[in-house]
């Protein structure tokens, strides 16, 4: 296919990008920026990790596209951090380089899950038995919520008949928010605790004094659970770093197309930087 009249394109993919090529983590696909450029006759093609792509959107998001969890006191010279739970878990650092935020990709979702409480230890034991090791994504993702569901339910659930149902995470969160099932309530509480704790980990690693942003498809759907204080308690619980985290702005990204927006921002930068 030729004659697209495109001067640049950028794609965010779920996996590490190396030498303009990515092998996607959860599906058996390989994506090559060079192959896309040749196939579609596009002069400049960029390939980004999906959270890196979303990171490019963060500085251009408007107030109506964000929900404030903590106003904080943003430091203009500080970095930002991004965490997003959906079908998987992604994180990115936004380095402040002379006032411009440069997103840096990570594969932090595949790091080890850190248990903080006795309930977390039960989760850790179950995940270790089932998977051989427990990683953060085994908890903080749609499938991760179902892993928690298995731990918190000792009998039948009124909301979910089949724990392998693709709609299971949505059914669990709805039952929890409507307080119709104690096991679902417990699963969502574990999820929110873990989300706040891991967001705090991302924040201290990045020293994201300019802001911590929560993206992905899950957060906007569970806002009542994120705004009842549980998330921020876990977020703040970082010992000597608590004062820094208490002053850090924290926002949920409401724009579900933030990844596409960020890819477009990056593609525009490719055009601007062309000789």
How would you characterize this protein structure?
The protein has 275 residues and is an alpha/beta fold. It is 39% helix and 20% strand. The protein is built from 10 helices and 11 strands. The protein has helices at residues 33-40, 50-57, 118-131, 142-152, 168-177, 182-206, 223-226, 230-236, 242-246, 258-272; strands at residues 8-13, 17-18, 21-23, 30-32, 44-49, 66-70, 80-85, 89-97, 100-105, 211-215, 250-253. The chain has a 6-stranded mixed sheet, with helices on both faces. Strands 2-3-4 form a 3-stranded antiparallel sheet. Strand 2 (17-18) and strand 3 (21-23) form a beta hairpin. Helix 2 (50-57) crosses helix 10. It is globular and about 65 Å long. The protein starts with 7 loop residues before the first strand and ends with a helix. The relative contact order is 0.18.
């Amino acid at each position: 296919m030729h004659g697209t009249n495109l001067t640049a394109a950028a794609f965010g993919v779920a996996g590490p990008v190396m030498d303009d090529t990515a092998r996607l983590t959860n599906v058996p696909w390989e994506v090559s920026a060079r192959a896309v450029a040749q196939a579609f006759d596009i002069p400049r093609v960029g390939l980004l990790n999906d959270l890196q792509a979303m990171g490019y959107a963060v500085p251009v998001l408007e107030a109506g596209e964000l929900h404030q969890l903590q106003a904080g006191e943003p430091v203009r010279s500080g970095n930002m951090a991004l965490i997003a739970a959906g079908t998987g878990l992604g994180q990115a650092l936004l380095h402040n380089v002379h006032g411009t935020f440069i997103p840096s990709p990570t594969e932090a979702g595949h790091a080890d899950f850190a248990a903080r409480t006795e309930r977390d230890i039960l989760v850790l034991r179950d995940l270790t038995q089932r998977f051989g090791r427990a990683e953060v994504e085994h908890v903080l993702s749609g499938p991760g919520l179902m892993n928690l569901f298995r731990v918190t339910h000792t009998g039948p659930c009124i909301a979910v008949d089949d724990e392998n149902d693709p709609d299971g995470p949505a059914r669990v969160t709805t039952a929890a928010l409507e307080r119709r099932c104690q096991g679902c309530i417990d699963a969502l509480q574990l999820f929110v605790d873990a989300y706040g704790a891991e967001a705090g980990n991302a924040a201290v690693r990045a020293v994201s004094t300019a802001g911590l942003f929560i993206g992905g498809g899950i957060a906007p759907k569970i806002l009542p659970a994120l705004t009842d204080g549980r998330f921020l308690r876990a977020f703040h619980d970082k010992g000597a770093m608590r004062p820094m985290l208490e002053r850090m702005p924290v926002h949920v990204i409401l724009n579900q197309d933030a990844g596409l927006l960020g890819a477009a921002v990056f593609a525009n930068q490719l055009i601007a930087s062309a000789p």
